[in-house]
Specification:
The protein has two helices and eleven strands; from the N terminus they run H-H-E-E-E-E-E-E-E-E-E-E-E. The protein is mainly β. A hairpin with a 5-residue loop joins strand 4 and strand 5. The N and C termini lie far apart (71 Å).
Length: 181
C-alpha cells in the first residue's frame, strides 16, 4: 500500500479527488438539508423602512391591510407546504406573505413572483424564470411566517404565481397559483 501511495500519479489523483469533493460540498451545500431556519414575522402595518410607498394616485389609503390574492404551495423538487398571500397595506404598498411555510433548506433560495402557470410534478420545476418574473429576495428561512415587500412599480395583478426558487440549480422547490380574493 505504501508503495502505491508514493507514486506521484496516485498522490495527484488523491489531491484532485479532495479538491473536487471540496468544490462539490461548497456548490451543493448538503449540510443545509439538516439545518432549519425558522422565521416568525408579523404582518407589517406599513411598508418596511427603505421601501418607497406607492403614489397616492396609484393606491388610495385604506383602513388596514387587505388580502388581494392567495394560494397554497405545492411541492416540486422538495416537499413544500404553506400559504401565500399578496397583501395591500394601509399605506398602499404591497407585501407577499408566506404563512406556515415548510420546505427544505437549500443553496441560494429566492422568492419569485411570476406569470408562469403552476404545474404539478416535474413539468413545473423549471418554468418560473422563463417569462415575466420578479425576485423579491432571498428566502429568509425554510420554515415559518415571513414578508417580502413588492418593489415600487410592481403590479401584483401582472403575476399569477409564486415560487420558492433555487437560483443555483434553476429549479422550483415549491410553488403556488395566486387566486384573487
Amino acid at each position: 500500500m505504501r508503495a502505491i501511495l508514493r507514486r506521484p500519479v496516485v498522490v495527484g489523483l488523491l489531491l484532485l479527488g479532495l479538491a473536487a469533493g471540496a468544490v462539490g460540498a461548497v456548490w451543493f451545500q448538503p449540510w443545509k438539508l439538516w439545518v432549519d431556519e425558522t422565521v416568525s414575522e408579523d404582518l407589517p402595518a406599513a411598508a418596511p423602512a427603505g421601501v418607497p410607498e406607492q403614489d397616492a394616485a396609484d393606491s388610495p389609503p385604506q383602513a388596514g391591510p387587505r388580502t388581494l390574492a392567495t394560494g397554497e404551495l405545492i411541492s416540486h423538487e422538495h416537499r413544500t407546504t404553506g400559504t401565500v398571500k399578496i397583501v395591500r397595506l394601509a399605506d398602499g404598498s404591497h407585501v407577499l406573505r408566506l404563512e406556515n411555510l415548510d420546505t427544505s433548506n437549500g443553496p441560494d433560495l429566492r422568492v419569485l413572483l411570476a406569470d408562469a402557470p403552476v404545474k404539478e410534478g416535474t413539468a413545473g420545476w423549471r418554468v418560473f424564470d422563463d417569462g415575466k418574473h420578479t425576485a423579491l429576495g432571498k428566502l429568509k428561512g425554510n420554515k415559518g411566517d415571513q414578508n417580502y415587500a413588492l418593489p415600487r412599480g410592481v403590479d401584483p395583478a401582472d403575476y399569477s404565481s409564486v415560487s420558492i426558487w433555487c437560483d443555483r440549480f434553476d429549479v422550483s422547490f415549491g410553488a403556488a397559483e395566486l387566486a384573487p380574493v
